[in-house]
Amino acid sequence: xxxxxxxxxxxxxxxxxxxxxxxxxxxxxxxxxxxxxxxxxxxxxxxxxxxxxxxxxxxxxxxxxxxxxxxxxxxxxxxxxxxxxxxxxxxxxxxxxxxxxxxxxxxxxxxxxxxxxxxxxxxxxxxxxxxxxxxxxxxxxxxxxxxxx
Amino acid sequence: xxxxxxxxxxxxxxxxxxxxxxxxxxxxxxxxxxxxxxxxxxxxxxxxxxxxxxxxxxxxxxxxxxxxxxxxxxxxxxxxxxxxxxxxxxxxxxxxxxxxxxxxxxxxxxxxxxxxxxxxxxxxxxxxxxxxxxxxxxxxxxxxxxxxxxxxxxxxxxxxxxxxxxxx
Lengths: 149, 168
Prior knowledge:
The complex is a heterodimer.
Chain A lengths: L3 H12 L4 E2 L5 E4 L4 H10 L5 E10 L2 E10 L4 E9 L5 E3 L8 H12 L2 E3 L32
Parallel strand pairs in A: 2-5, 6-7
Antiparallel strand pairs in A: 1-2, 3-4, 4-5
Chain B lengths: L1 H29 L4 E5 L3 H8 L23 E5 L7 H10 L5 E5 L1 H5 L21 E3 L6 H16 L11
Parallel strand pairs in B: 1-2, 2-3, 3-4
Helix pairs in contact in B: 1-5, 2-5
C-alpha cells in the first residue's frame, strides 16, 4: 500500500514543505504553480507513469482540479488536488508530460470553464462551438435554446 | 371515338398493372429492410441485443445492418440526439435513397426522455426528421423493437393504416 504521508515528506524536501495531505489522508494537496513540477517528479522519479484522469469540482468558493496518476509497475493509484480562485481559474497544462491530457483538459474547459495555459488546441469538445457558457458550473443558468423547432 | 375508347381501356389496364406491381415491391421490401443503425446511447445496446441470437430479427429479414446510409432502407434512431449531432443526422437521412423510413427508438428519441430540459439536447428526433414508428421504453425491450418493426411492415404493405382516423 502506498504511504501517502511518507511520500509527501519525501517530496517536501524539494517543495519547501508546501505539500499537504488531504483531510481523509488519501490525496496530496498542492499549490497551483507547483503542479507541473510535482507531476513531472512523480512521473520520472517515483514511477507514476500513467495519467488516469483529470477532473474538476466546483465548490462555490473555489474550483478544484484533481489529477489521478497510476504506477503500472507498482500497481498503485495516487490523487493530487489543487485549488483555483473562482474569478480567474487558470492552470498550466500537462500535455507536455502526457498526450492523453489533451482531450481531458478540453473537456474541463468546455464544461467547467477552467483555462489551461500552454494547451495548443483549447476549444470545445462536447458542446456545440457556438454554445455560450460553461454548463457544469454551479452558477450556470439553463437557457432554453431551441435550435431545432 | 373508338380509338379513344381503346386508349382509355389500355390506360386502365396499364394502371392496374402498375398498382399491383407496387404491391409486390412493397411486400418484398417489407420482408427485407436493411436498417442503418444510428445507435447513439443506451438504446443501441438493446438494438444490438435484438440482433443477436436470443431475440433474433434475422427471422424477419432485418439483420443486415448497413454502416452506410446509401445502402439502407430504415434508420433506427436509438438514443439521445444532441444539438451537436442533429445536423449530422439530417445529412445522413438526406443521403438515404427512397423509399426510406425512420424508427424512433426509446424515450430520448421520441421527446428527449429524461434529458428533456437539459442544455444541448434536441427534444425528440421528430423535430428534425419525419418519423414513421415510435417505439416506447427506456430502453425498449428487444421484443418491443421487434413489434416496432412489425408495425412498420404492416404500414409498408398497407399505407392506408397510417392515416389519421377522424373521430366518429
